[in-house]
Amino acid sequence: MADGPDLRYAQVLMGKIEALRGQPREAWPSPCALTEPLRSLGAELDHPGWYELARLVHLEAIDVYRADGAEVAGDFLDDYRRTLHSLGGVLVELRRYEEVLPIKQEEQEVSLRLAVVDASALDEANDARTTSVRILARLGRHDEAADSAAEAVREIRRQPDGKPGRPKGYTLAYALALYADCLTGVGRFDEAIGAAAEAENIWRRYNDADDEPDWLVTSRLDEALGRLGGAFAQAGRYEEAYAAFAERVETARRSIDGDDDFSGLRTLAVTLNNVAIALGRSGRRREGLAAAEEAVRLDRVLAARALDRQNRFECLFPDVEASLDADDQPVGRELFDDGGLSEVNDLFDDDELDEEFIENIEFDDEIRDEHLGDFREKVREAELSLCAGLYNLGSDLHDLNRVEEALAAGFEAVEIARRHEDAAPRLALALNNTSCVLADLNRQEEAAEAAREAVTLLTTLAAADPEEHEPTLALALHTLGVSAPDREEALSASLRCLAIYRRLYRLDPHRLAGDLAHALTDHGVLRSRRGEHAEALAAAAESVAMYRRPAARHPARYGGGHASALLNLAEIHSAASSLAEGRAAAEEAVALYESLTADSPEAHEHHLARARSVLAGTAPF
């Protein structure tokens, strides 16, 4: 898509629109003649910065279709559906979610009318329902989203098996996956397993039915295994979760077609990264670390290959300055016996390229620069993938108390992100994780500096796109609240963090409970250090209460946070001379840490030692 509308074409369309507006409707070639240029203009304006104008254009077209409140005639029904679809898309881009819902509801109804004569329109009806479900979830209306997703599954089951368009199995699998996500959103975790398992089984059948399944099927099976593993983990069924995650990795390995399969190796690296995170949350920290390490090794190889290909292209097709600097030395194609043909075929993975293709690059700077831009973009993608792998690896190492190695990974991730423009989200995450490690090494000024930079970057990003970046901004503010030596700066950051998390929690309580509880724990610590014991006790007690339910269901992910919250509560009670309450909280924290340490001593034994020390300090005299 172009960066913006073709304003010359838009002007032509406006001329047609104004001409029709100036005529009585009865004089138009057809009752909906005005809608054709309006729809074309709306499509032309479908660009960032122009969405509001596109919305107004689509609304005018819809008003024409709905003239005098009459039902849209059958001859124009499909065009009307397309206009509703376009308007819905523009409203989503504008984040006017409440307005999307009635538009998508009408699009679904119109599509069902069309399906009476063309069953392929069922796909459009199903897609409109899917968008409505996702919008309901975004608005925090999770019960409605789950009910609508359940109805979607029932409707699809009733649809004919041999209908034209998308295979029914694909549509059902998509709907089941969405239903599983919605069930998680309302805390119905056991039911989510059932929906996720059925979706995974559908994709597995498609995959097994073909000796060479297409990319769509293999990628959807990968997603389905990840969703199923996550659903098992949410319900505390860790062995089944591990089996799903392990199969996900093996499926990605089998899809690789040799050592030169860049795309297959990239998919494996991404899968390993995702699985590493999931395994860590499931208590499989050692396996998660192994997956993260393998992902980083792969990403290093792929980044080096991408850079090598870029360098080879620049060697084969040097710019004017490099050619002039060479004097009488061989340069560019002169370095190759065959004039660079075999090199070009290798660089572009195409044995059919010829001399004309080479000459177009050699003698047209615009074509050369376009290809060079493509090679540079591949380097950027590969290096930023390595950056993400490194900060995930650093997080895994930090969780296992291997802080020096974690710091090295974090520093490298930051250095890579700084090399690339428009990499602020990656840089902010790398800085945030590095700040956490620096704080554990008591390098407070460096930790605070990294956290401040992350907050600055994310504040700018969140101002432009709050839905995308506010959760990460809250994370960085949490980190700054912990690391800032100045207590006023720390309190300000912590309060901003809590305000964001509380708002996000109201929209998605089952997914955000752990983040808010963790922030409350550290807010309590900060308040206690300031001598504000009432505020400290309130935050600590709220944190413990918020952790109890998710920690009971998913101890591998939330048990450590729950134990930390209890230990913080114990220390606050003790500071206020409430020794009995402090001892009860410390005893519970020690019991939790003992259980966690048995499964993962590297991650928890140092916390257990501290908990026992706090418990000893609450002993009666």
From TrEMBL:
SUPFAM superfamilies: TPR-like (SSF48452). It comes from the Bacteria. SMART domains: TPR. InterPro entries: TPR-like_helical_dom_sf, TPR_rpt. Keywords: Repeat, TPR repeat. The keyword Acyltransferase does not apply. This is Tetratricopeptide repeat-containing protein.
